[in-house]
Fold these 4 entries.
Entry 1:
Amino acid sequence: QLQLVESGGGLVQPGGSLRLSCAASGFTLDYYSIAWFRQAPGKERERVSCTSRSGGSMYYADSVKGRFTISRDNAKNTVYLQMNSLKPEDTAVYYCAATRLYCSAYVSNYGYWGQGTQVTVSS
């Protein structure tokens, strides 16, 4: 069974940090670009960051540049999102997703999705 599983979400104060993990089972991530999306209540799902198959190219939304870092460990079949200097507006459910294409902004281009992990930034 092909599956992506996110972990690492939680409640954190503004200015704090969290590291999200996205672990794949049933397939290898080597052949996939992996993106992190987030969706806040009442808003559309938006791409936050993406890493290409090789890890040589990375994308960040303007709202998270300089604060979030995406990385991948193909040996562990896992992708990470390090989130620093968190803000209340980062509150959302975070999803990882896999595509055979180059990093895409379109939800429909991703064939595999995790179940999501809640990130809440609040004092």
Entry 2:
Amino acid sequence: QVQLVESGGGLVQAGGSLRLSCVASGRTFSTYDMAWFRQAPGKERDFVAAISRSGGTTGYADSVKGRFTVSRDSAKNTVYLQMNSLQPEDTAVYYCAAGFTYSALVADRAVYWGRGTQVTVSS
């Protein structure tokens, strides 16, 4: 069992930045591929970014490429999402997810989910 706890959300003006963190419990963090998803009010959950267990592979949704960066620190059992140039359309609850297969994870078939952190971008 893995527990994921997100933090770092908040209210920011358009053009601003936030860094989300997701801390994973347990000693097997390095065996999981990790990802971030988001869900805006009234919309489906969307893939945002993913990083492989080694950190050597990353992937991004087209809507965030060039603005968001995903990274991980195995020593801290933590995955990060650096979000720059935030826009109102980035407003959503952001969820951390973990899985055993990178492609499945990106396809929204995670094994574990966090409870989410709210990001609100004002115009």
Entry 3:
Amino acid sequence: QLQVVESGGGLVQPGGSLRLSCTASEFTLNYYAIGWFRQAPGKEREGVSCISSSDGSTYYADSVKGRFTISRDNAKNTVYLQMNSLKPEDTAVYYCAADLACSWDREEYDYWGQGTQVTVSS
């Protein structure tokens, strides 16, 4: 089964920054829309951001707009999620997923990673 791999999570203080990476070894990410989702304990997995494959359009949840930035580096076969001004409520396991088009519906995505933990705490 094709899989994406997330990295870059960790513990950061409120107001700090982290950059998450999503990569794959068995397929080329630039042919796919890549979505970032997160799941906090006891909550549903929710969409955070997505970047399309066709024209590079980007989408953000209202809760992260203006703080998070999604981007691609096709040469490195990697999609990044730059997270600034982090808040305790951003604490969650973050997942990236690949599909043919951006969607906020996690059921639409075919390929998922194992997730990376982000903890925002003082």
Entry 4:
Amino acid sequence: QLQLVESGGGSMQPGGSLRLSCVLSGFTLNDYAIGWFRQAPGKEREEISCIRNRDGSQYLKQSLKDRFTMSADSAKNAVYLQMNNMRPEDTADYFCAAGSSCLLNYKYFEIWGQGTPVSVSS
């Protein structure tokens, strides 16, 4: 069974940091591109970052580059999203997903985790 499981979400005050984890099972980092996405209430899902391990391609949303970092650990078959200096507008459900390319619209990513909620407020 191909599965992604996210963890690490929670509530925090502005300026705080969180590290989200996404563990793959049934497949490896070399099989798919793995992306992080988020969806805020009433808004469309957006891609934050993506890694395709087999060719080293990587994407990170320009507006988040100074605060967010995505990394991958092949030994643990997992990807991570480090989020620093968080803001209320980062409040959303965060998902990881697997697809054939980081260039795809989120609608074409094939395997999705269940999501982990992140809330930033004072």
